[in-house]
TrEMBL record:
<keyword id="KW-0732">Signal</keyword>
<feature type="signal peptide">
    <location>
        <begin position="1"/>
        <end position="37"/>
    </location>
</feature>
<keyword id="KW-0720">Serine protease</keyword>
<keyword id="KW-0378">Hydrolase</keyword>
<protein>
    <recommendedName>
        <fullName>Probable periplasmic serine endoprotease DegP-like</fullName>
        <ecNumber>3.4.21.107</ecNumber>
    </recommendedName>
</protein>
<dbReference type="InterPro" id="IPR011782">
    <property type="entry name" value="Pept_S1C_Do"/>
</dbReference>
<keyword id="KW-0645">Protease</keyword>
<dbReference type="InterPro" id="IPR001940">
    <property type="entry name" value="Peptidase_S1C"/>
</dbReference>
<dbReference type="Pfam" id="PF13365">
    <property type="entry name" value="Trypsin_2"/>
</dbReference>
<dbReference type="InterPro" id="IPR009003">
    <property type="entry name" value="Peptidase_S1_PA"/>
</dbReference>
<dbReference type="Pfam" id="PF13180">
    <property type="entry name" value="PDZ_2"/>
</dbReference>
<keyword id="KW-0346">Stress response</keyword>
<dbReference type="InterPro" id="IPR001478">
    <property type="entry name" value="PDZ"/>
</dbReference>
<keyword id="KW-0574">Periplasm</keyword>
<feature type="domain" description="PDZ">
    <location>
        <begin position="277"/>
        <end position="368"/>
    </location>
</feature>
<feature type="region of interest" description="Disordered">
    <location>
        <begin position="384"/>
        <end position="408"/>
    </location>
</feature>
<feature type="domain" description="PDZ">
    <location>
        <begin position="413"/>
        <end position="495"/>
    </location>
</feature>
Amino acid sequence: MAFGTRSGFLRGGIAALAIGAMAFGAIAPALTTPVQAAEGPGSVADLAQRLIDAVVNVSTAQNVQGPGAGDQVPMPQMPEGSPFQEFFDDFFGPQGRGGGSGPSRRVQSLGSGFVIDAEQGIVVTNNHVIADADEIEVNFNDGTKLKATVLGKDTKTDLAVLKIDPAKHKLTAVKFGDSGKARIGDWVMAIGNPFGLGGTVTLGIISARNRNINSGPYDSFIQTDAAINRGNSGGPLFNMDGEVIGINTAIISPSGGSIGIGFAIPTEMAVSVIDQLKQFGETRRGWLGVRIQPVTEDVAESLGMNTTKGALVAGLVEGGNVENKEIQPGDVIIRFDGKPVDSARDLPRIVAESPVGKEVEVVVIRKGKEQTVKVKLGRLEEFEKQESKENTDEEGSNQGTEQPAKPASVDVLGMKLAPLDDEMRTRFEIAPEVEGVVVTEVEPNSAAAEKRIAPGEVIVDIGQQAVKSPEDVEKRVDGLRKEGRKNALLMLASKTGELRFVTVRME
């Protein structure tokens, strides 16, 4: 039997912190007076009793086809007349598990969820709890079982919204709270279905906020030490006011059991997704249409910035009905619609939470100065559909013909460069719209090789100045050296025109 909560492995260490004390003569007795420590909640019994009926167990079933002929396991060799001959004939024969198409089998899994609307019968859980399920059943604390249907689900945030018939059972709903107000150290309570045991209450604190565990594009989890185990997925994480501030979704554990590191999707991110799934059956996320990179220390130094905050725009992307022409490659986005962008991973989440079609102000740093530009957001899902269709249409496209390269006219920063003429375009299959200077060779162990610059990439600009010839590159690098710069910021284009920024050492 499978259980819902995702798990992984984490290696960690323990750091010891020694605190020293110093005596201060006559005032020492005052400093050593015992201080009353703040206590946790004496009991959460009343809170648990009020909330537990709103938390449900989510049981799913799926028909899985048995192994086919290609999965056939060879029959062991046995002496003639062996007493196990008949057994192995049954097991490995055409009707057994080792051969033929095999009969379908029933796979079940268990997770958790909670009611958010008693009148309409709306239940929230994790997408991975109900993914690929043929049947979904919601089990209540009093033993009542109801069939559920999926209103909508979202793989990016791992959320799903279910509907049950409210006329068949008296439902208790819980309310969402503001996870943005939750602080590290606040008490929280988790209720769920660990290991299929049924309604179970655990207590702990918020251990950390804004955790990125690389499970999706919008990671910003609440970390808690309230025990979360397999089967707790989709269950609520409550504050001490009985409000849901998170949806339990993942654990880090070498054994699959709780080691005090669990993660919940914060409601400040989940509520808008849940509302969209309820209303439309799908998500409708904002789309800015930019490719971004982190602002590293090298990039900040190359751009004359004092901090590494913001998201570096590596290029614009068409599609999804976005109007973003006022943004330029090389801009560093530091605020979006009044919200600060502290890092590159903040921007996709902030944009996705914004309404489609909204006109927003974006504050960027462009050539060392702050500027405010306006954009009209498109819809992410429209762009993804368009991109998927284009990728399908491009399959089987013709390949270019390999031709000898002309000698590179300039050798800079470990790269041999050549003008981007028709011969170079053919040799490296570079799209007609790409302009700049082509890299024909990269010297091993050079500064360029460290940044994984490859032959066929095209240098579009250096230090936010366009280059059209190998000589332009050489002059620009010399100019940056005279300015005292240690790194050169290169905008590179792939053969299809996709842009990225790299900083290359000039020392």
